[in-house]
Amino acid sequence: MMKWNHNANSSCVLCSDPFETRDHLFFMCPYSRKVWVELVEGLLLNRFTTSWQDIMKICADKDYDKTKRFLLRYVFQNAIHSIWRERNARRHREQPSMPEKLVKLIDKNLRNRMSTIPRRGEGIYAKGLQVWFASRRHQ
């Protein structure tokens, strides 16, 4: 934004950091980090990271368990979307949401998606809900 408009507000509306970058917004910002930690730490365990580059590598890692990789990618997609919506809502002076609200929304989205997979004959991810619930207990 600063390249397009030098007078643009470059601060993070989620935490007031002076520079909102992609890496800051996803997932170095204390707000988005809290969302990411709550959702993914139990899934990735010792591979957990908040580094954008490392997350991209894990998402692309073909040797990683297919079910966990699917869960990670789905949570990642939902987290990016939810955090971006929250960021824009705050920029437009809407009522802010707590990170816990985003976590619940993303968790519900994932459970809803996973519950539809076995009915569609995609048995490869049938154990996804069990893996997801187990990862949430590690918190």
Which word captures the global form?
A: elongated
How many domains comprise the coordinates? Answer: 1
Alpha-beta classification: mainly alpha
What is the radius of gyration computed over CA atoms, rounded to a whole number of angstroms?
16 Å
Mean pLDDT: 88
Which residues sit in consecutive blocks of at least 5 with pLDDT less than 50? none
> In DSSP terms, counting alpha (H) and pi (I) runs of 4 or more, how many helices?
6
Can you walk me through this structure?
- The chain has 6 helices and no strands.
- It has one domain.
- Helices cover 61% and strands 0% of the residues.
- With 139 residues, it is mostly helical.
- α1 crosses α2 and α2 packs parallel to α5.
Write the layout of secondary structure elements.
Layout: H1 22-28, H2 30-44, H3 52-60, H4 66-91, H5 99-116, H6 128-137
Helix pairs in contact: 1-2, 2-4, 2-5, 2-6, 4-5
GO molecular function, one term: RNA-directed DNA polymerase activity
Keywords: Nucleotidyltransferase, RNA-directed DNA polymerase, Transferase
Domain Reverse transcriptase zinc-binding: 2-36
In summary, what is this structure?
By secondary structure, this protein is an all-alpha fold. The chain has one domain.
Tag the structure with descriptive keywords.
139 residues, mainly alpha, 6 helices, 0% strand, nucleotidyltransferase, transferase, Reverse transcriptase zinc-binding domain
